[in-house]
From TrEMBL:
It comes from Ziziphus jujuba var. spinosa. It comes from the Eukaryota. The keyword Chaperone does not apply. Its EC number is 2.3.2.15. Involved in the synthesis of phytochelatins (PC) and homophytochelatins (hPC), the heavy-metal-binding peptides of plants. This is glutathione gamma-glutamylcysteinyltransferase. One of its GO terms (molecular function) is metal ion binding. InterPro entries: Papain-like_cys_pep_sf (IPR038765), PCS-like (IPR040409), PCS_N (IPR007719), PCS_N_sf (IPR038156), Phytochelatin_synthase_C (IPR015407). It is an enzyme of class 2 (transferase). The lineage of its organism: Eukaryota, Viridiplantae, Streptophyta, Embryophyta, Tracheophyta. One of its GO terms (biological process) is cellular detoxification of cadmium ion.
Amino acid sequence: MAMAGLYRRLLPSPPAIDFASSEGKQIFVEAIHSGTMENFYRLISYFQTQSEPAYCGLASLSMVLNALAIDPGRKWKGPWRWFDESMLDCCEPLEKVKARGITFGKVVCLAHCAGAKVEAFRTNQSTINDFRRYVMKCSTSDDCHVISSYNRAIFKQTGTGHFSPIGGYHAGKDMALILDVARFKYPPHWVPLKLLWEAMDDVDETTGQHRGFMLISRPHREPGLLYTLSCKHESWVGIAKYLMDDVPLLLKSEDMKDIQKVLSVVCTSLPSNFEEFIKWVAEVRIREDGGQSLSSEEKARVVIKEEVLKQVQNTGLFQHVAAFLSSANSCCKNLTASGDGENLPKIAASVCCQGAQILAGKFGFSESECYCCRETCVKCLQANGDKPITVVCGTVVNGNTEQGVDMLVPSSQTTHSCCCTGSRNYIGMHPAGNDVLTALLLALPPETWSGIKEEKLLQEILSLVSTEKLPILLQEEVLHLRRQLHLLKRCQENKVDEVLGAPLFS
């Protein structure tokens, strides 16, 4: 029996010109000589086909993020960090995108969440001259890229709303190269820029908003080097709501006299799975590959993580949080107060099992796949004669196989010595509950505390949580977490299509 299906579409030409046609090649060569194809090379290196018919927005964004060499900060498959459509889920569940596609505002939200610098414009908030200027800007460099949201019907193509990156520009013919991520349907093609503007100047029926374009570039520093908010856990919406909506109301309704009471009020109603919401990021590697030395990249990442951790612990707020969590009446028992020797064996075993699971490409335990850490040890590896880096080494057993795993751990200590898991001398060897809670409290919006009635206490709190005097690394880390919180709140309120810009904080 014959199998029904579709194999590609004939590209309507005009108005489009197939990139691989004789005319398309000639336009390409001329644009190269004019210097307006500089962004093409990086984009074509990471050109991908959307994996689902409705994933054009996700494929366009992951392609651009990889072209900009932005580190996603979490694993894709095996040990590799890499942007893939399946990882772009913080602003809209993938199942919804698969069924209905994604709106312009939510793609912008995803780009912000991924740590990119984004400038987004709807056509009713911009002009064709602005658009041409931005296309020219990105076509003459490789440090920014344009993603266009447009209606295919203007080009006589089948379908309606679509996303794709712009891979170059021919100034003389005023034509843009669309690197269509639906490569199963249409090949890359040149279109008149004026017609592309008309295709973007269309109202999306889903939102009632105009389509448009976004400029995506690399931030001056990778955000979230040590801390990040996890949107993978199903309860993130509730936790974000508690932090952004409930905490200010609780502080307003309670009569507080000191910092410890403030912390108690904030922590009393913390969701039980709060630890799943904010994560600290370690590096994992296969021991046989890693050897006993560190690469310059590994060393640089861990050194910055350690500096951020040290800066957290030097804040005045940290001292109050540490005292509160260690107090007998602390209500945050679900948070580990310190990373001391009592907890090190459990932490090391868990970390190594997690690392082995990730390296094997496994993301969920089953009864038939039981990972057990047979032994762990904390060591110090030298990095070209510099300060030693703390490494949790483990031998993980899964059935009849063994895997040696190293986890490079950010540490706030200045000196270490090799030691097995029984040691009790590793207080502060990794971001513990007091560090994590301090970072998240710093990330709460300043208006969170405005309901505190006691003026002296309010001023003390505002001084403790102020970002203005924080060292630059910690300041950027905290502001990144704060932006993530605001973006999650927009998602919760379904407002990401109304406000396109990233939250701005001083």
